């Protein structure tokens, strides 16, 4: 059984004896861009509930999120990552959607804690949104109630892995290659 | 002053139609309370505030309770006097289909937000309130969620209000269905 021929952007990497040089340049530039992007994930300074306390711990000296080049930003327009940390009410869900829309591509979402994963402890409340993935696409779910700082660091490293696997040069708007 | 003394003094002042139904059993009702007729509420509260025997200077808490079996909504006022250190609890029984009572924000201005919250969650209309809007829920929310017969909508602005159980979704722990 033969594997299907690569199509689209993948075809440029196919070992067909074609554009060897350009392929190497592409890979190198992609690697370089991803190396820079994954080590400078600026996250939106945004907390909703008790998970925000753990988020502050993670940013503090013990967790030290900044050793991975991740710094809090006050504006969604200069952020790469939004960490939805806490219980999301419907009233706030509309605002979270707006904040996410204001972030420029490429953008990543970490859903931190049970509440933003699925509504958590408060999922039977009339005012609580049953998971942030109902309004914005989530890249990494961090379980816990609340997660420890180490768990959030792990989530950030998974975002870094995801960025490192992308082919940023071949990226098109809204389509992850 | 003891709640019983406050009750008797108020009843002598306003009559048994306005102030009635004292519950003074400390074992059963941890805060002794009595009822006030909705029409007499503002007069009674003015009296409690201005009379030096009572000098109630603080509205501690304003709550609403829904009683569908009685077809009533009760508004509960916890009052406290910082100068005399005594507490008075009033209840006002309102018809459930049209709960309306005069505002107390003219007596204690803290009642403003308390009454907005009660309006928000139980739909009690406080007549004469300067700014009766929802306090906690979004302005376009439909219904009053702390009423016992409140039914959750299927969605809010396109956001579904239910989430499937992942155990059902992925058939975890169940035998695979035979094709």
List the helices and strands and how they pair.
The complex is a heterodimer of chains A (177) and B (179).
Chain A: H1 20-38, E1 43-44, H2 51-59, E2 72-73, E3 81-85, H3 90-102, E4 108-112, H4 113-118, E5 140-142, H5 149-164
Chain B: H1 3-14, E1 19-23, E2 33-36, H2 41-50, E3 58-67, E4 72-80, E5 87-95, E6 100-102, H3 111-122, E7 125-127, E8 155-156, E9 159-160, H4 166-169
Describe what you observe in this structure.
The complex is a heterodimer of chains A (177) and B (179). Chain A has helices spanning 20-38, 51-59, 90-102, 113-118, 149-164, and strands spanning 43-44, 72-73, 81-85, 108-112, 140-142. In chain A, strands 2-1-3-4-5 form a 5-stranded parallel sheet. Chain A is α/β, with parallel strands linked by helices. Chain A contains 5 helices and 5 strands. Chain B is an alpha/beta fold and 179 residues long. Chain B has one domain (3-169): NADH:ubiquinone oxidoreductase Nqo5 subunit (Beta Polymerase, domain 2). Chain B contains 4 helices and 9 strands; from the N terminus they run H-E-E-H-E-E-E-E-H-E-E-E-H. Chain B has helices at residues 3-14, 41-50, 111-122, 166-169, and strands spanning 19-23, 33-36, 58-67, 72-80, 87-95, 100-102, 125-127, 155-156, 159-160. The longest helix of chain B is centred in the N-terminal third of the chain and has 12 residues, at 3-14. Chain A binds chain B through residues 90-91, 93-94, 118-119, 123, 126-127, 129-131, 134-135, and chain B through 136-138, 145, 150, 152, 156-157, 159-163.
Extended strand count of chain A? 5
- Spell out the helices and strands of chain A N to C: HEHEEHEHEH
Q: Strands of the largest sheet of chain B, in order across it?
A: 1-2-5-4-3
CATH architecture descriptor name of chain B? 2-Layer Sandwich
CATH topology of chain B: Beta Polymerase, domain 2
Amino- and carboxy-terminal Cα gap of chain B: 78 Å
């Amino acid at each position: 059984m033969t594997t299907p021929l690569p199509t689209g952007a993948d075809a440029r990497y196919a070992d067909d004896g074609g554009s060897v040089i350009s392929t190497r340049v592409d890979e190198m530039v992609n690697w370089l861009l991803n190396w820079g992007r994954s080590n400078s994930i600026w996250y939106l300074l945004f907390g909703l509930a008790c998970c925000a306390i753990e988020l502050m711990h993670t940013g503090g000296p013990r967790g030290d999120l900044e050793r991975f080049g991740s710094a809090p930003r006050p504006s969604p327009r200069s952020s790469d990552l939004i960490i939805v940390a806490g219980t999301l009410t419907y009233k706030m869900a509309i605002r979270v959607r707006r904040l996410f829309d204001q972030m420029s591509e490429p953008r990543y979402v970490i859903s931190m804690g049970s509440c933003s994963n699925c509504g958590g402890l408060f999922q039977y409340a009339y005012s609580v949104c049953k998971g942030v993935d109902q309004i914005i696409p989530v890249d990494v779910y961090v379980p816990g109630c609340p997660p420890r700082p180490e768990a959030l660091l792990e989530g950030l490293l998974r975002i870094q892995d995801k960025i490192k696997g992308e082919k940023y040069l071949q990226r098109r708007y809204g389509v992850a290659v | 002053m003891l709640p019983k003394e406050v009750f008797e003094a108020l009843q002598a002042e306003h009559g048994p139609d306005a102030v009635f139904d004292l519950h003074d059993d400390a074992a059963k009702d941890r805060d002794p309370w009595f009822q006030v007729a909705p029409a007499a509420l503002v007069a009674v509260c003015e009296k409690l505030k201005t009379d030096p025997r009572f000098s109630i200077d603080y509205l501690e808490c304003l709550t609403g309770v829904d009683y569908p079996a009685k077809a009533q909504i009760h508004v509960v006022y916890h009052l406290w006097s910082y100068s005399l250190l005594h507490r008075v609890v009033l209840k006002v029984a309102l018809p459930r289909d049209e709960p309306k009572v005069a505002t107390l924000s003219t007596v204690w201005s803290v009642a403003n937000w308390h009454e907005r919250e009660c309006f928000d969650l139980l739909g009690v209309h406080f007549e004469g309130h300067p700014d009766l809007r929802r306090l906690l829920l979004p302005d376009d929310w439909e219904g009053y969620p702390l009423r016992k017969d409140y039914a959750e909508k299927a969605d809010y602005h396109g956001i579904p209000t239910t989430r499937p159980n992942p155990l059902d979704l992925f058939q975890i722990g169940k035998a695979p269905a035979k094709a």
